């Protein structure tokens, strides 16, 4: 989303995460902008019985739950390394200074936030009103729609 050198010049640092290591937990206060340099991160939470619900997978170049930086509310989800990954981490205050000094970055940030909100609306509607079969079809079509190659059988869905 944002060029690595720009983030580094504003005080970002690299942080490596092992598989299943938390970047942040549900209830934590958002204090960093995270951008994935290598690897994948799953966004999840758990129900009362401890069953995991994966809400999404964020890939290289993405930023997990960037929308949380724009509120004073705690994270509603966990961000967990899905595989070994390397992440750039920029303090929240520095991130907002970067946006103020480079308003052209909003052209990258706002579509990303809008896509995230669109996904959340689809998931809320799908999970609330549709049959299990339609829920799966909707999720699979959404995931494939974000993949660059739209030919048949070209996208392996990263869930079981």
UniProtKB/TrEMBL annotation:
UniProt superkingdom: Bacteria
CDD domains to which the protein is assigned, alphabetical: CAP_ED
Domain Cyclic nucleotide-binding: 15-116
Gene3D superfamilies hit by this protein: Jelly Rolls (2.60.120.10)
Alphabetized PROSITE patterns for the sequence: CNMP_BINDING_3 (PS50042)
Official protein name in the record: Crp/Fnr family transcriptional regulator
Organism: Chryseobacterium kimseyorum
């Amino acid at each position: 989303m944002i060029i690595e050198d720009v983030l580094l010049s504003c005080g970002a640092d690299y942080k490596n995460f092992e598989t299943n290591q938390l970047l942040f937990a549900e209830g934590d206060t958002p204090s960093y902008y995270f951008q994935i340099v290598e690897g994948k991160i799953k966004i999840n939470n758990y129900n009362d019985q401890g069953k995991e619900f994966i809400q999404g997978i964020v890939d290289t170049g993405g930023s997990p739950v960037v929308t949380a930086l724009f509120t004073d509310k705690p994270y509603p989800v966990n961000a967990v390394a899905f595989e070994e990954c390397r992440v750039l981490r920029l303090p929240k205050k520095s991130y907002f200074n970067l946006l103020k000094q480079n308003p052209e970055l909003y052209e990258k940030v706002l579509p990303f936030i809008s896509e995230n909100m669109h996904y959340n609306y689809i998931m809320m509607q799908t999970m609330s009103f549709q049959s299990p079969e339609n829920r799966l079809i909707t999720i699979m079509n959404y995931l494939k729609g974000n993949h660059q190659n739209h030919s048949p059988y070209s996208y392996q869905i990263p869930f079981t």
